[in-house]
Amino acid sequence: MDFPPALTFILPLPNHRLFAIFEEGSIMVYDLKERLQHPAFQPLREEALFQQAHLANGGYGVVWNDEIDLSEYEVWSKGKAVGTVEELAARA
Prior knowledge:
Helices cover 20% and strands 35% of the residues. By secondary structure, it is of the alpha+beta class.
């Protein structure tokens, strides 16, 4: 796949991780710990701000505020695949 699918769901998890569902059904967990070393992402060390994560318009990223965002490509390429929506539904 040349381009990652858009995000359809994002949920902040403990320990600065994001639970992400993509439009084609993949589920990934992305760990921001390394990113928090970069000055632009250091404000996300504050749990209250980190918990404000939400989808960018069209699902093309994760946004916290006007200054901090993360592309869907970053989540797709560096996230850990944990299954698909279909697999999760089958376990329910």
